[in-house]
Every structure is written in C-alpha cells, then in structure tokens.
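Please complete every field before forwarding. Incomplete forms are returned to the sender.

SECTION A: IDENTIFIERS
Entry label: holo-313
Bound molecule: S-adenosylmethionine
Molecule representation: SMILES string

SECTION B: INPUTS
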Amino acid sequence: MIDLANYQNLKDLVAGVLAVWPAHEKFISKSLEERSADVLKSSDRMALLIKTLSAHEPGGLEGLCKSYKFLCEDIVLPEELHFRRHGTYRLSNFVDAEREVYSNADFMRQYMDGLLVSSVLWVNHTQALHHYVNTYLPLLPAGANHLEIGPGHGLLLYFAASRPEIGSVTGWDASPTSIANTKSALAALGVTRPVSLTLKNLFDTTDASSDQSYDSIVLGEVLEHLEEPVAALRNIKRWLKVGGRVWVNVPANSPAPDHIFLVKSPEHACELVREAGLEVEDSAAFAMTGTTLEKALRRQLAVSCVVIGRRVD
Ligand SMILES: C[S@@+](CC[C@H](N)C(=O)[O-])C[C@H]1O[C@@H](n2cnc3c(N)ncnc32)[C@H](O)[C@@H]1O
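SECTION C: PREDICTED COMPLEX
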C-alpha cells in the first residue's frame, strides 16, 4: 500500500473499508498506485467530503463502508457475470429497472451510499470527478448559469456551488429520494448559497421557460439509465444557450442492475453527443482499476467516458 501520511482523509476512508472488508486490500492498493499526486490530492478532498457526510448518516462511516462492500459483491458482481456471458446488460427497459431497483428504498440507499465511496476507491470514478473539478468547471464563464440533471448524492453539485464565480446553481432529478439526498448533502457540506432543486424528469419539455437558459449542464452517470440517451441529449441542447457546454460522464461496459443502455466505447459516447447536434469539444476516458485503457477497450472492461459537448447553433 502506498504511503498515505499526507492524505489523512483518504487514509481514514481506506481504514474504514478495510475494517469491514480486509480482503479488499489488494484492490485498494492497486487503485491508489495508479494515481498521480494531483489525483491523490483530489481523492483526499473527496474522502473528506464523504467523512463529513457520514457523520450525518445513522450508520456513520462504517455504514457507508458496508454499503460499498454490498455494492461490489452483491450488486455489481452478479451483473458482471451476466455481462461476461451474454455481452449485454441484463435489463434494457426503464419499467424493469423501476420494479427491481428504483422502487426498493432499502436497496437504493445501500446502492447510492456504496457509489459515494466508489467515487474515491474506483480509480475511473475518481479520475472522472477530478476532470469535472479541475478541467470542466474552470472552463465556465464568470456568472455562468449551471444545471446538473440527476445530482443524486450531490457531490458534483457541491463542487459547482463552491465556486463563487458560478452565477447560479440548479439541480433537477426525477427521483424525490435523490432530491432529498442532494438537499441534505449540500446542507451537511456547509453550502449556504441558494441552490434551486426541482423534481423534474429530463424527458419533460412542457415548460419552455428553461430553453436556452444554461451556460453549463452536467449529466454524470445518467445516460446509461435511459432507454433513449440521444433524445435526452437533444433536450439538453435545447436548454443550453448557444456557446453553452455539457459535461457528460457515462460508463462503457459497466454492468449494474439499473444500467439499461450499453455504451460500448468512448467513441460511442462521443457519437451520442454528436447525434444530438452538439459539437464534441473535448473527451477523456478512464479505465477501471487494475487495467490499462488499451486493455480495457480490447476486453470490454469498464471505462468512464467523459465528453464535453458544446452547443454551436
Ligand atoms: C447514478 S445517479 C448519478 C449521481 C451523480 N450525478 C454522479 O455523477 O455520480 C443517477 C441520478 O439520475 C437520476 N435520473 C435518472 N433518470 C432521470 C431522468 N429521466 N430525469 C432526471 N433524473 C434522472 C436518478 O434519480 C439519480 O439521482
């Protein structure tokens, strides 16, 4: 294990996970070895946020770490086995995902808590978040109107709200539970500026008042949950001002019980953005822990695909 003496929060989170799951040490070691000093610094910052959030959870940090173990062993592993056998995700429509996953409150809570911890321990998740904080947010013009669709655990919205040069911060989510989570996370993390949070499905375009309103829209880990990702991106185009940007993070080859649209590669993610009429300004791809990008693409292993799209007309 690398020396974490300069990264106390990361050290605490790793200790918390190893206390409930000692056999995970080899994976964590590998995941940490693959990080640059900059990414380790971001990991430590995110670990501090997770520790802060855990203080408001009934099970504390131990509860979050147990949920992380549940995510890896009981949620993702069976789906991974299906994907390896059949080359497809197990479910392909929203109704089934709703029945099996979204409507199961206890399962959802453990799933979302586990994902929060994965944002620090799965190197592709950390690198995507690092890209958002260090590459994407600094691109935004002063006074930008910023919207995140599907903020869920609220970490990404927190980073936007922490930048005073961003003019307004808004979140839309189709799930009342997610809206409540985002709201309590922002409060726990000490956000005092106004953040507008609305229950809204991104396929709902009945209200035209949001058209051409945003300089920035974020869609982190949402497209893979949709039957029609291009239709969703077309709506995003309509809500962006001309010149505005979207930051998309979508995993390729990443089975989970509520992933119903299979993105096959980083290029496939870029094609979806182009198909919706947006220009691809930048893109990046981060392979899962324990492999190189080249090997991950060859073997259809999970890769986080980040795309910055721009509305040019
Ligand atoms: C996996 S979480 C992503 C959390 C966070 N954005 C991230 O990058 O880690 C997906 C979120 O998208 C929301 N979502 C799914 N479908 C949606 C839709 N059609 N409209 C709006 N939100 C949606 C879910 O409720 C959930 O909060």
